[in-house]
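notes to self, project folder thing:

trying the whole complex as one job this time. last attempt i did each chain seperately and stitching them together was a nightmare. two parts in total, labels are on each line so i dont mix them up again. if this works i'll redo the older ones the same way
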Amino acid sequence: MQRTLATQLPTRVGEKVRIAGWVHRRRLLKSVAFLIVRDASGLAQVVVNAPAKLASRPSSQSKRRAEIDALTEESVVEVTGTVIANETAPAGVEVVDAELTVLSVAEPPPFDLYRPTLTATLPTLLDHADVSLRHPARQAAFRMSAAAVHGFRSTLDGAGFVEVHTPKMVGSVTEGGANVFALDYFGRPAYLAQSPQFYKQTLVGVFERVYEVGPAFRAEPHDTVRHIAEFTSLDAEMGFIRDQRDVMVVLRDVIAGMLAAVGEREPAAVAASGLELPQVPGEIPILHFAEALEMISSDIGEDLSGEPDLAPAHERWLGEWALREHGSDFMYVEGYPTAKRAFYTHPDPDRPPYSRGFDLIFRGLELVSGSQRLHRAEDYERVIAERGESFGPYRTYVDAFRHGMPPHGGFAIGLERFMMRLLGVSNVREVTLFPRDLHRLSP
Amino acid sequence: MQRTLATQLPTRVGEKVRIAGWVHRRRLLKSVAFLIVRDASGLAQVVVNAPAKLASRPSSQSKRRAEIDALTEESVVEVTGTVIANETAPAGVEVVDAELTVLSVAEPPPFDLYRPTLTATLPTLLDHADVSLRHPARQAAFRMSAAAVHGFRSTLDGAGFVEVHTPKMVGSVTEGGANVFALDYFGRPAYLAQSPQFYKQTLVGVFERVYEVGPAFRAEPHDTVRHIAEFTSLDAEMGFIRDQRDVMVVLRDVIAGMLAAVGEREPAAVAASGLELPQVPGEIPILHFAEALEMISSDIGEDLSGEPDLAPAHERWLGEWALREHGSDFMYVEGYPTAKRAFYTHPDPDRPPYSRGFDLIFRGLELVSGSQRLHRAEDYERVIAERGESFGPYRTYVDAFRHGMPPHGGFAIGLERFMMRLLGVSNVREVTLFPRDLHRLSP
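result (full assembly):
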C-alpha cells in the first residue's frame, strides 16, 4: 500500500491507509490509546482501541497496548488503519483500527518536542540539533529559509544571471586577513574563502551576470548573537552597470522575490510562525549617506558631520524615517565614505570622499551591503598602495582586471542573518542548522 | 538608451541601438573596419566606415580609425549605431554608422579567443582562467553545468525534498581519514567535510527528504585526469524507503531532469557543443552485482566469482550490454559486496555478503553511487567494531541515530565528473571553473 502523508488524510475518509512517521506524543487512556504521528507534512491522530488493564490471558489487544505503553516519543512507526472523520481530532480526521509496526526505537528525547515551544537552553538545543530541529517551529524556520534561497535564485535566473560554484580553498585572502581560517593544503598554507568576491568579479568578465549560493568562512573571534564562523552567502555580481543604482534595482527585485517565494512555497510554515511577510515597495526609498547624517543630526541636535559610518542607533532612526515617510520597511543608504568600505568599492567620482557603496536597511537594521566595484587594474593598484598594503597577496586578484572588465557591481546576502531579521529571532544560531562559532564545532 | 544584446539585434533592424561587450575580433580593411563584439548572448558585427590611410588633416573619421587600430582584443566597448540587414554578416545583421566608447582597455590576451578551439595547453588555460573561460565553447560548458544543477534541484523540489546547507568545517571525519584537509579552528584541529553524508542522514530525521548542492573536499594525492581536491557535490537523501530501489527510482528522475534542463535552458550551448543529449529510459535496466559478474565471466571465459568490485573493463562490458540489450546509455548495478562499500551502507538481509548499494553506469563508466544506509545506532556500533575502527570519532555520527531514524538512503553526484562524462572531455579540470589539485591553488 502506498504511504499517505498526514495532510492528505482528510481526502481519504473511509479508506484504509498506511501512514508512517515519528511518535510525536502519546496519550494513554483507560480503554484507548492515542498516538500523534508526525511526518514531513504534519501531524496525524491514530486511535488504538486497547484497554490499559491486561486481560486475564494475553490477547492481541493487550499485547498491542503493552507495546504502545512502552513506545518512546520519536520512535519511528508505520501505521495501517482506516481514516474516519472526527471533528475533535486535528484536521478533522483520525486513523482507527490501527495496526502498528515499529521501524526504529528511540531513546527518550532530551526535551519535549510536542510542546508549542522548546524549553531547553539554546546550547542544549544546539548540542542536540538532530532532535531539536524536528520541532515543528524549527522545521518551519528552515523550510522558509530554503524557500528564500529558491526565490533568490529564481529571481536572478529570470534576469539572465548564471549560477556558478567557486573554490572555497584559496591561496590568498581578499577581504582582509584578520578573520581567516588557515588550512594545510598538501603541505602549503591555504585559506578558506571569506567570500567569493574575487571569483564573482572575475566571472562577470565571462558571463556578465553571475550568482552563487555557498558557504563563506570567517574566523570571528567575537562571541555575539550575530556572529557565526560559517554562513551561507547569497552572492550576485553584474556587469555593464552605470553605477550602483542598477545593482540596487536588482537587489530590490531579489528581496521581493525571496519574500514572495517564502509566502508562496511555505504558506503553512508562515502561518504557523505567525509571521507577517513585509512588503517591498516597487521603489525602495534612497538617502545619500551625507544627507542621512544631516537629517539625523538636525533631529537629534548633535553634529554628526564627519562621522565615517552609521551607528546602530542611526540605522534605527532611518528605519523609523522610512516607515513614517514612505510606509516602507526597507530603505537604502548609498554613498558611504570610501575609506570605510572594502578596497574594491568604486568611489563616487562626483563626490570623492564618498563611494558608490550602499546598504539595504530593513526595519532599522543593516540587511545587505553592496556597491559598484573598481574595474580597472590601475585603480586597484592605486587603492592598494593608498591603503599602505603590500601588492603581493592581491596580484592574482588584480591581474584578472588586466584583460578587459566592464563597470560592474554586486551584493551579498548572509542567509542566516536575513532569516534572523525576517523572523525577528534574537540569535543567528536559531536559524542555522548546525552553527559553527568560537566554541562550537559539533554536531 | 537601453542596451541591446547581440542576439536581439535581428529584431531591431532599422533602429538605432546601443550594444556593449568585449572586442572579440577586429578586421581592419582599407576603407572600413569590422569589429566583432561579444556579449553574454553572442556575437555582433559592427562596421566602422573609416579608411586606414590618414587624411592630410586629422578628421573625426581618421581619429576613430586610429582608435580602432590601437584597440586590443578583449577591451570592453560600448557601441551606438544603426542595425541593418546584411545576409553575409553573422545572424544576418550588422551595426553601422557606429560610434565607439572604450570602457576598459585590455592587455592583449595570452591566446586567441576568436579561434574555434583554444590552442594553449591546459595548464596555460587554467593559469589564465579569467580569460580562457570567456571562450564561447568553455562558456557553453559551464552554462550547461548550471542548467544541470537547476534540473537536479527542480526535480527534487517537485518530489518534496527540502534544500539544506550543512557545515563544511567539521570536528571529525566520516568518509575515512586518509584524504582529509586539516585546518586550524580557533586553535583546535578541524577538517573540511569530505561529503555532507552525516548531516544529510541526520536531516532525514527532520525533513524526511533533503538535498544539498555544495563543495566537498578531498585531499587527493593522485595527479590524474579525474581527481580534483574540491568539487561540487549534488547530494540527496530520503527516508521511509523500502530498500535501495526507491532511491534508484528518484535518481533516475533526477538524471532525466538534469538532462532535460540542459536541453531546455541551454539549447544554443548544446547546439554549439555538438552534444547529443542521452535519453534516460523510463526504467533503467538493473543487474545484481553477482549476476553481472557471472555474465561477464561466461562472456570473457574467465572466472570472476569472488571479485569484490567491478574493474573499469567490467563496467565497459556492462555499458555495451545495456546498449545492446536495452538500447540504453544507462544501467544500474546493485548489491555490491558490503565489505567494499562505505561503512554506512545497509547490507542486503537476504544475501548477507552483498549490500543494498548501487552504482549508476553511464556508457560504461560509473556516474553515481548510492545505497540504502544503516538506520539503527546498534547497527553502526556493530559495523564500526567489525571494521576494527575505534568508536570515538564516530560518536557524534552514531548518536544521531539514537533518536528514531527511518529506513533511508541516498546518492551523491559529483557535478564536474557528471559534466566530464556528459561532454566526453578527457580531463575533469576542463569542466571546473577554478580547479584545485595537488599542484594548483590559484587562481
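what i see at first glance: Chain A has two domains: 6-104, 131-431.
need to look closer tmrw
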